[in-house]
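Course assignment 3, question 2. Fill in each field.
Student: A.L.
Task: Predict the tertiary structure for the chain below.
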Amino acid sequence: MTDVLTVDAQRELAAEAHRFGVVDLQVLVLLSNLRQVLLIEHCPTLSRGLPPQWTIPNTFVLPGELICHALERLCCQDLHLDPAAWPSSFLGVTTLQEPEIEQYLFALNVSDLPDELTGTDPDNGARRWWNIEDGRPMSFAPGIRQALASVRLLSPTGCLA
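Answer field:
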């Protein structure tokens, strides 16, 4: 992952966010399998009886942690996969306004693992592959729609383009 962003570039991104008063830094990873994206149920214990909201895997950058280390932690601990095993790319940065959070979006092509990442995790809720060409609008968790739209993955209707 260190080849995606140099250590100096990661420190500069964090320093730039802090200069503008943004203290919360978040890493999001878009896991793709050809024309599918892995979605995770957002806060399943809080939404009992309500239609699920969906998110992509994400975590906050811990104080003093590099962005790439947060990405590795997210992939290894939460998703149980080695991020160095698949092609990856840094897609960009977006800032949420309420609450103010700097988001760093990465893409990982995990085309040979579609079934291993799906199912239900008792701690984190359901995981499923969503077909990008599916015309049904999705209910995304707050902040996810903006991150995806910032890299032109979402159309104005809310469906992945």
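Instructor remarks: Residues 30 and 93 are 13 Å apart (CA to CA). The beta strands are 24-33, 36-41, 54-55, 58-60, 88-96, 101-109, 119-121, 125-131.
Grade: pending
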